[in-house]
Amino acid sequence: MNAAENGTTHPGAARVGIGGPVGSGKTALVEQLIPRFARRGTGLAVITNDLVTEEDAERLRRGGLIDPDRVVAVEAGACPHTVIREDPTLNLDAADMLDMRFGPLDLILLESGGDNLASTFSLELVDYWMFVIDVAGGGDIPRKRGPGVLLSDLLVVNKADLAPHVGVDLERMVAEAREVRGGKPVVVTNCRTGEAVGTVVEHIVHGVLFDG
Hints:
There is one protein chain. By secondary structure, the chain is of the alpha/beta class. The chain has a single domain (14-206), classed as Rossmann fold, CATH 3.40.50.300. It has 7 helices and 7 strands. The chain has a 7-stranded parallel β-sheet, sandwiched between helices. β6, α6 and β7 form a beta-alpha-beta unit. The radius of gyration is 16 Å and the shape is globular. The termini are close together.
């Protein structure tokens, strides 16, 4: 079911943003999501956002998980938050191009890095967005109440396996995340192994695809 059919405000595929600090595991999450959606028969494409590189896009193209032509890189040239929030024109154009070239698509994933907790997505650009943090970044991240943590539709706490090695009380970290988010969902993952990524898929399906 594409976005026009499921009630979103733009034609074509549903658009899901994936933001979070550098190194939190966003690209690893995308790599785990691609085959899971492929098994569902979901028509998928990916847009990556970086400053002046296509590193993440090239990693996905080389990975063999998706047709390389279905991965588009947007180079922000400045703060990457600008092209997903203040002026998302480059990403809107990239999404429209993918829809025209490969449509009918069901889903476009838009990954964007950042160096802090302030990255948010314009609702003109995405229908649903998630924010990825990791335990190695510190158990106090939820208490810092960054906009990404507070406002995202889904918060992903990644690298759960590292908690005992970096001195983080994972149970407390997740409890504090749920508290500051006022009941909005939190999923704890290990994107290296795929642990709980299926739950992320379920949230996306119920959030924008409505075919679960």
